[in-house]
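[Solved] Which block belongs to which protein?

Original post:
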Amino acid sequence: MTLYQDRTFAGGELRSEQFAGAEFENCTFRSGQWMAADLTGARFTECTFEQCDLSNAVVRGTGFRGVVFKGCKLLGVQFEQGNAFLLAMHFEGCRLDFASFRSLVLKGSRFTACSLVEVDFSGSDLSKALFGDSDLAGAVFDDTKLEGADLRDARNFIIDPEKNRIKGALFALHGLPGLLMRYGIKVE
């Protein structure tokens, strides 16, 4: 296993085939174009991705421990295939449309100014997660734990209170239609 520590990788400095099975600690990745890259078995610890495109990346067995994604495209990434041990990720200004976080424990994760269109959060634990200024159009919440989550600035979500755990979650008045849709109640 190749180990990279305290490094910054800019643009095409790192080829997509160098990821699989490698370990990265305290590294920064900037402006990388790694669409459909194979990250199988890679481990990222306390790393930051800035303005990178990892759309449709293969993350089978990949560890994301203390990873921050800023301004990245992560379209269609199936995060549930990754390594769930010590999983911790935060997203700022990212496009995560069609990604899947199915059955993952993401307690306290932050999704700030993100596009989460048709993202699958089924069975996930999003307790105390923050969805600040994020678009959740078509996102799937089914048997999702959202206790203490902050959705006050989120928009376009539909969450069935009978199929999800929302005790202590924070919602704004503009989010009420997304909570009441199941009951056919219209809020104006």
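(Second protein starts here: sequence line, then its structure tokens.)
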Amino acid sequence: MTYGMALPLLALLAAGGCGGSHATAPMSQLKSPSVIAANRQGGDDNHGEGSRRSGALHVTKECSEYTGLAGSFCTITSSNLKQIAVGTKVIYRKAAGPTVLDTDVILQPPGRGKNVAFGHVVLDLVNARGVVTLSGGTGEFRGIRARADITHLTLKNWAWNGTYSFSNEGHEH
């Protein structure tokens, strides 16, 4: 009789994949394999040790104040990433050449102190296409990595469409 009850209980524990304390817990309290996998990959809400946040990046900017000289800038007009707020300046470190802009950039959000991102732009001025990459920064930009295609929209308006990720190495929340 003892073996008759122990075998089904052992099978229940093995099928549940957990210790005896959770074997009879309601299913709503247990995490499904997909939830466990999502937490290990690190979604936007997972900020644990070693977590990563990533996703699509969509930014638009207007360049009415861009002169083509070192130190001139464009201004972000929309962004799906809170760190790249509307009003962020994209400051170009070097002057544009006759057909190519190939320079480091600094993203400087409005009113955020020492939060800046560092990156690089290569833009074919003849075909109005290029690539921007972000590779780290300070404050809220610590650990950022991004790559986006640059496309011309209208007049002095441009779009960045690509992907971003944040490693959690020292990232402040």
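Accepted answer:
You had them paired correctly. Confirming on the second one: Strands lie at 52-62, 73-79, 89-92, 100-108, 117-124, 129-137, 144-154, 157-167.
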